[in-house]
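Please go through the protein record below and see whether the fold suits the sequence. Record follows.
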Amino acid sequence: MQSLFLGIAALACPVGMGFMMWMMSRGQHKDRDDGTHQVEQLRAEIDQLKAERAHTGR
């Protein structure tokens, strides 16, 4: 029984590290998608401001 607990304890660290790395990589992919969306929104806003600026003659 003691060897079972030692085996579980020995596997807890690598399994936990793998899980944390997986969770962090999921977060990076999510941020990347949101960043692309934000860039598109900012470009659209810049285009809109340029059109307004051209319309007012400044």
